[in-house]
């Protein structure tokens, strides 16, 4: 039997893995559940992704695009005249107000790196990308601190089910960005 050419299959498998994790968490992820979700033969998942970690790396890389994309799309924040704390606080609110399932999925995959070392470099890519987007407005160390603060605020909002407080975030970012002694 001739092989069917299916150039989109790998991407469908990644998309299916993201849907499975979004619905059932990491515990529900297996080559079998992904194959069923993608409507492909089981062998296709292992052909494209030898291990679940390989599949998770691809899924995390794709999921990581969320906040970084939102930030990159607001190039106006790069302007020295832009109110960076207000802009970041508003962007974070916009991102958290969007598809919560997507945000939760992003963090579930991101935090999976705690137990799956293969995911750590991809998780670090996200922080590095957002830091690089912020560094032109501050300095690399401050940009890294901003990413850590934004990350912590997101985690607290997700884990405590408390509404996002844009005013508090803006004030906290303002304190972090204030010149020493101000």
Please explain how this structure is put together:
There is one protein chain. With 182 residues, the protein is an all-alpha fold. Helices cover 69% and strands 0% of the residues. It contains ten helices and no strands. It has helices spanning 9-24, 31-38, 42-48, 52-63, 65-73, 84-97, 100-111, 120-134, 140-160, 166-177. Helix 5 (65-73) runs parallel beside helix 8 (120-134) and helix 8 packs across helix 9 (140-160). The protein is elongated. The N and C termini lie far apart (74 Å). The mean pLDDT is 87.
Strand and helix map with partners:
Layout: H1 9-24, H2 31-38, H3 42-48, H4 52-63, H5 65-73, H6 84-97, H7 100-111, H8 120-134, H9 140-160, H10 166-177
Task: Provide a quick synopsis of the model.
The protein is an all-alpha fold and 182 residues long.
Please describe the structure with a list of short key phrases separated by commas or semicolons.
182 residues, mainly alpha, 10 helices, elongated
Mean pLDDT: 87
Radius of gyration, rounded?
A: 19 Å
Structural class: mainly alpha
- Tell me the number of strands: 0
How much helix, percentage-wise, in residues?
Answer: 55-70%
Unreliably modeled segments? none
CA(first)-CA(last) distance: 74 Å
Biggest sheet, in brief?
A: none
Tell me what portion of residues adopts beta-strand conformation. Answer: under 5%
Number of helices: 10
Order of helices and strands: HHHHHHHHHH
Coarse shape: elongated
